[in-house]
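Morning. Coffee machine broken again, so started the prediction first thing and wrote up yesterday's gels while waiting. Chain of 117 residues, entered below exactly as on the submission form.
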Amino acid sequence: MNQQIIATNNTNKWVPICSFSEVEPGDVMQAELPDGHKLAVYNLDGDIYVTDDRCTHGEASLSEDGMVEGEEIECTWHFGRFDIRTGKACAMPCTVPLKTWNVEVQGDQVFVEDDRS
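Came back before lunch.
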């Protein structure tokens, strides 16, 4: 995958993470930033959303161990849920929200804004 940065905003940068066509509608897949940080990429009715891949409760991979139910991802380790669009924790035992990422789709390429300092 081409790791070209498409734009910068102060210290933030847009980084390609996957192709739009790789993410099946209603599904989640794992992507990775160049430094190895894992992301969960979701296709909700043609709209792409990205969150951190790790459940904030049990450290499970949401892309590997999660199940998309409507607009929520359920962590199958302890059945906690998060709103995919906002990262909000929606069901116990999850109380800490997921980090969400700004997304840009250009052609078939999905980019996220890396705002980590």
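The CA atoms of residues 15 and 47 lie 18 Å apart. Going to sketch it on the whiteboard this afternoon.
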